[in-house]
Each structure stands twice: as C-alpha cells, then as structure tokens.
C-alpha cells in the first residue's frame, strides 16, 4: 500500500524556494507541494502558476490555516524565522526552516521549545548533509583511510555586493556572510568531528556600503583533541565552495562541498602522495532532504539531525559574530 505523500506549504517566494527547494520537493518520492504564500497575492498566484502548485495565498496566516498542509518550508529573511516557525508550530505544521535557524541561540531555543510543545518536527535546511558522499567520507575517516584528523579547512564565498537592496545586506534582517554562508563550514566541521567546539576567533570586513554587515569573515574554530576548523566566508569575493579534511596519513578534498556543481560529482582522497578520485552519484540534495523529513513524519521517527543540532550550530555562529565585532577570542566551554 502506497503511503500518502506529505503535503507542503511554502511561506514565501524567495529565490532559494523557487529555484531549489520547491523543485527538490517535487522531485522527491514522499512529498508534494500543495500551497505557496506571499505577502502579496499576485506574487503567490504567479509563483503557483509557474511552479504548478494548486493553491496560492496572499498571507502566511492563510496558508497556516489550511488544514490540508502538514509541513511548511520557511525561506523568509533570517529575522522572521523565529516568528513564523512558532506560528507554524502553533498551527500544527511540521517545519523545515532555512538556515540559519535563528539570529542567536536564545531564539533557536524558543523555536525548539515551541515545536516540542506542539508535537511537530523542526529541522534546519542544511541540504548538503543528505548527500550520500558525506556518510561515505565519514566511513572512510572512521576506517582509518587518512589517519587521525589534524585539521579542517573550508571556504564558501560568492560576489553579489552590487545588489545593495539584497536582504543579506540589511542588519536588522540578520544579514551578513557568517549567517548566510559561514554556517556551512561550521556545520560541516561539527558533523565530521561529531563534537562541539571549545572556542572561536573571527576577523571580518564590516562594510559601510552594506549596512555594516560582515561581507567577508575568516575564522578559527577550536575543537577538542587539538583539531581546528579554519574557514572563510564572504559575499564580496570570488566564488568558492570547498572543503578539505587533513589527516595524519592523508587528506580528503571536496571541490564542490555544499552546492553540488554540474560535473563535480566527486571528491579526492590523497594518501602517501597518491591521489584517487571517488565518484559519487548525481543526486538532488533538496529532494533527499525532503524525503528524509517526510519519512520522519510518516513513521514518527527521530530526525537524523534533530533541532538541537541547529541550536548547537547557532551557538557557534553567534560566538563567531561576537568575536568579529569585539575582535576577541570567545570561549564556548
């Protein structure tokens, strides 16, 4: 007997929703997009027509009142994540919220408590973690392929600085490169090392042209066992999207670490000076993310990445921002 698909509502018509998440949900096996909402009905109607979505609403409240909707995806600006996650939970909807989950760990904690109280699931939309290559790499590391991990390096940058009206460049909306792309290297290091960091130090470029948000940041994240993540993230630099895991006996390099670029479905393992390319399947990370979320709903199983993980990541990101603003090292223990 075929399981009924989870019916989704989309709160907002952001580019990430239109170009990536909605197509991913549609491509998935266990889900369907049933409704989309915008603050303006015309925008929602157009998006619904273009994306072949049955229902369009002119307010987020109207969508949350729809009894057919089981789960919502929230791609709204960062400062609205807390408000609409809590409202969605109170309406009995499961929530997949775009990263970063919140503006700080206090907001994240409130969101988690609201979802727990309502008995709904809450996940942060880090799609990269659902690509099978990450479990493959972790298995290789645990099998001793590169020896003991000595360091992790990662970069996630792009240049969109000319778009001065972009929400990423509005302080009150939770703009800045650490919130937008710095969250990825931090998440990946925590995922790979399976532990929480002890301290962070971050240096950033705060741009007066962009409402004084951090347009570029470089960080050191100290983990137990003398291992560190060094990373840089930015919205005013050449595009980069890479991850390197350095071991005592080898290294793993992922040239397309978070956004899977066409033709880059591989990672490289180097050991004793010899490198080999490991090909990985070309998959839709957004579809895999949606199916994992749906399976958790349908079978009432715990999420692989529980909402507490989002809280922990938010705690590190908040410390990085504090470090950059205060030009100081922040201890987390």
Short structural description:
The chain has 333 residues and is an alpha/beta fold.
Give your account of this protein's structure:
Keywords: Oxidoreductase. This is Gfo/Idh/MocA family oxidoreductase. This protein has helices at residues 15-27, 41-51, 60-64, 81-90, 105-118, 132-142, 177-193, 285-298, 307-326; strands at residues 6-11, 31-37, 55-57, 71-74, 94-98, 122-125, 149-159, 199-206, 214-223, 227-234, 236-247, 250-254, 266-271, 274-279, 330-331. The mean pLDDT is 97. The strands form two sheets. The chain has a nine-stranded mixed sheet with strand order 14-13-12-11-7-10-9-8-15. It is α/β, with parallel strands linked by helices and 333 residues long. Helix 1 (15-27) crosses helix 8 and helix 5 (105-118) runs antiparallel to helix 9 (307-326).
Strand content: 25-35%
Number of E strands: 15
Q: Provide a count of the helices.
A: 9
Instruction: Give the terminus-to-terminus CA distance.
Output: 50 Å
Largest sheet: 9 strands, mixed
CATH architecture of the largest domain: 2-Layer Sandwich
Total individual domains: 2
Radius of gyration, in Å, reads 20 Å
At the fourth level of CATH, the homologous superfamily of the largest domain is Dihydrodipicolinate Reductase, domain 2
Mean pLDDT: 97
Write down the CATH class of the largest domain. Answer: Alpha Beta
Structural class: alpha/beta
Strand order of the largest sheet: 14-13-12-11-7-10-9-8-15
